[in-house]
Structure formats: structure tokens, C-alpha cells
Amino acid sequence: MVYTRKNQSRLTRAEKRRFVNAVLELKRKGRYDEFVRTHIEHYVSDGDSGLRVAHMTPSFLPWHRRFLLEFERALQRVDSSVTVPYWDWTVDRTAGASLWGAGLMGGNGRRSDRQVMSGPFARTNGVWVIKEGATTGDFLMRDFGRPQNPIKLPTPDELAWAMRDPVYDTAPWDSTSKTGYRNKLEGWTSGTGSAKWRNHNRVHRWVGGHMLGGASVNDPVFWLNHAFVDLLWDRWQARHPHSAPYLPKKPPAAHGPSSGRVVGRFEGMPPWDVPPDELLSHRGIYRYA
């Protein structure tokens, strides 16, 4: 049966409670931290050696689609009614947005150490203890809008800039690709200051704290951000029906700068050994409302 992922702003109080309780149960069992470790392991940047599948690469979108599915299936083993909601950050653009309420994600970190003090994922509740990729403490941290160096969430115009590009991705298939939908949505640019980050990346920067870097899964808002990114890939395909839904079709040529670093359309992505080609559509599994 096809199930529905909803905008977080339209969740009922009961739906929020079920989602949060399922996430907390995965944390209690230690399963949640396995997802954190998976993301850390596969957060390989341009400057690192080895295969890139999660970020700064064409497989950014299919890799995270599968990652979201694995997480959602884990949640549904706890409560079959739960799905991952999405956060439309072009609409809910302030610290007062509904997702930051005590019944869902909780609020910002306090000024002194950025520790989140409200909501179900506050360390003071004794449940949400950061164990993977911890830095200065074992508590969840956020720093909305980065007051010391202000940054704003993406606007509808900034998202439209990415959605207009009719080509999925272009060489050199990394964070320096100047054209291509994937990199514009992921948000790497050659700009300076807050202009350096666009769309998906700017969301991570705006939330701050644990949402920075490979350990970003420690903040459950990670999933709401990526559910919206997943929705946007679906919208992009609908807008550009004659464009290839994934590029490159074949892996880059041997001995070139991207050789062995980029996954072609029919190559398996670790850790699941599933090719992007199998993740080009979600229509038989879930839909967005």
C-alpha cells in the first residue's frame, strides 16, 4: 500500500506524538545511532579519497532517498502508522515555525552553549544523548540563524533558481559543478559569506549546531529537511520530463579526476549496493501531500 508523507505543518497532535515516540524508541534501542554512523561514514567530500555517494556527487539524491526509506522502515517497525514528515523551508522560515514547537522538534539552543533545552530531544529529558560525532558535550545543539554571522533560510526564488535547471548534473560531478540541478539544490557554490550556501546546505547552516557536517543526523530535523529535498527531486522530474533523471549514465572514464569517485546510473551505492536507477521514482512506495 502506498503511504503518505505530510508537510509537518499539517500534522495532527497525535501524528506528531507517534512520530516523536517512534524516533525516541529507535534511539533507546541504539538503532538511531546506527543511522548517524552510516551518514558519518559516507560523508566523503571532494578533497577526500575514495568513492563519494552521499554528498558533493550526483548520487546525493538517490542515496538520501534510500537512506530516508531505511529510516522510515525502522520507524514503521515501531509504529506502522508513522511516516517521515517534510519541512518546506521556503515557507516555514522562522524560529517560530510550527516544527520548532515542544511537540515536534523542540526549539533553538541556548546562547551560552547552544544546548537545546525544550522539546523531546532536549538532553534534560535524559533520553536524547549524543553518542556519535559528539564535540563539546553529549547534548543536541542548535544555533538558529547563526547570530554571530547571520544567515537566512532559502527563499522561494533561490529554490526556483535550482528547479529551472533542466540538466540533472554536470562534470566534474562534485561541489564545483557550476550548472546542473543536483549541485544547485544541494547548495555548493563559489560564493562568499552566507551566499556560499544555497538551498539544502543553507538549511543545515541555518539550524547550526549538530546540523553542521557528517554527524547532522544527530538532529532529527535532518530527516524533515531531506524529505523536502526528496519531494523537490520528484517535482524537478515532473517539470523536466524529457531530461535524464540521473547523470552520469556511465561512471567517469578511467584515469580521470573523477574515476572511481562517482557512481553511474546502474552502479550500486554502498552500503546497500543499490543503483540510482532503482531509486528514480518513489511512486509505488509513498506519495507527498
Description:
The longest helix has 19 residues, at 60-78. It is globular, with a radius of gyration of 18 Å. A two-stranded parallel ribbon has the order 1-2. The protein has 289 residues and is mainly alpha-helical. The protein has a single domain (3-288), classed as di-copper center containing domain from catechol oxidase, CATH 1.10.1280. Helices cover 31% and strands 2% of the residues.
Kindly summarize this structure in a few lines.
The protein is an all-alpha fold. About 30% of the residues lie in helices and about 0% in strands.
Output the number of helix runs.
Answer: 7
Largest sheet: 2 strands, parallel
- How many β-strand stretches? 2
Approximate helicity band: 25-40%
CATH level 1 class label? Mainly Alpha
Overall average residue pLDDT: 95
Beta-strand portion reads: under 5%
What is the third-level CATH name, the topology? di-copper center containing domain from catechol oxidase
The 3D shape can be described as: globular
How many domains?
A: 1
Name the helix and strand elements from N-terminus to C-terminus, one letter apiece: EHHHHHHHE
| Fourth-tier CATH superfamily name | Di-copper center containing domain from catechol oxidase
Low-confidence stretches: none
Structural class: mainly alpha
CATH A-level architecture: Orthogonal Bundle
| CA radius of gyration | 18 Å
Q: What's the arrangement of strands in the largest beta sheet?
A: 1-2
